[in-house]
Amino acid sequence: MHPTLYSPVSDDFYEKLTRIRFLFCDVDGVLSDGSVYLTNSGDEIKAFNAKDGYGLVALQHADVKIGIITGRQSILLERRAGELGIDYLAQGVKDKISEMRKMLHNLNIEAVESAYIGDDVPDIPVMNMAGVSFCPGDGHPLVKATADYVCTMNGGKGAVREVCDLIMQAHGKLEIPGVASV
């Protein structure tokens, strides 16, 4: 077993993390807590976790690409992705596997070098394609059973940060101010 900041993982799993070059994220239930608020005027409101955002920015600085693939369409998500410097955003996607393949192909990255975090049944095929799959702690039971790693944190409440930290730790790039990389 290999120690991590969150919980020990198998040496084989840790080795897989060292190969990750691209992290794909779902949105509702992963980057957000899954709640969708609609106002009387028809506006949509979502909450994004700042800790998750910091993790995504830090992971990009560690030379891991970030991609967001979602079946929904949201101007809020475009704004958030822009704030975080995420270049690979695909919204309104019905076939997540095809979109993931396209992004990987364009960057000459193999599926085994990718990770995916999803929380619901439509994410399972994409999780199975990725080299490593993650699920927030409050994901659907079938997704938890499919995931290589179930986060200790919930969707929109730090699960993405946990994934980013695990990958950075495996890459030897988890920086703690005033402390050497862990």
Task: Describe this protein's structure.
The mean pLDDT is 93. The strands form two sheets. This protein has a six-stranded parallel beta sheet with strand order 5-4-1-6-7-8, sandwiched between helices. It contains seven helices and eight strands. It has helices at residues 11-18, 50-61, 75-83, 96-107, 124-129, 141-146, 159-170; strands spanning 22-25, 37-38, 44-45, 65-69, 88-90, 114-117, 132-135, 149-150. α5 links the parallel β6 (114-117) and β7 (132-135). The chain is globular. With 182 residues, it is of the alpha/beta class. α1 (11-18) crosses α7 and α2 (50-61) runs parallel beside α7.
Mean pLDDT: 93
Overall radius of gyration: 15 Å
Strand content: 5-15%
Report the span from N to C terminus: 16 Å
Overall body shape: globular
The largest pleated sheet is described as: 6 strands, parallel
Secondary-structure class: alpha/beta
Order of helices and strands: HEEEHEHEHEHEHEH
Helix content: 25-40%
- Helix count, DSSP H or I runs of 4 or more residues: 7
Poorly predicted spans? none
Main β-sheet, spatial strand arrangement = 5-4-1-6-7-8
Strand segment count: 8
Task: Spell out the key features of this protein.
two-stranded antiparallel sheet, 8 strands, globular, 6-stranded parallel β-sheet, single chain, alpha/beta
Provide a short characterization of the protein structure.
By secondary structure, the protein is of the alpha/beta class. It has seven helices and eight strands, in the order αβββαβαβαβαβαβα.
